[in-house]
Predict the structure.
Amino acid sequence: MTMWEQLEPGEFWTPPKNFLMLVPTILLLLTLVSSNYSTMVMALHVPLWAVLILAKLPAMSGVRIFRINATTGEKKKSLSG
């Protein structure tokens, strides 16, 4: 399990998880404001922010993309069955 999945497992939208989703959002907004909403800065930071937030949504719980964070047991299980 990832650190995010271990943080209050099975529960979504808890105060600690909400706070940890709010931090990248605030950092993004501060970056955009300080750069006067530069197109180049937005093109770089908004997709990165989207990846961070999408990975934390309840629908992504337990999902492994490109086998990132897959344990040895999960690899063997998926290959044999």
Observations:
- The chain has four helices and no strands.
- Residues 13-80 form one domain.
- Residues 24 and 52 are 8 Å apart (CA to CA).
- The radius of gyration is 16 Å.
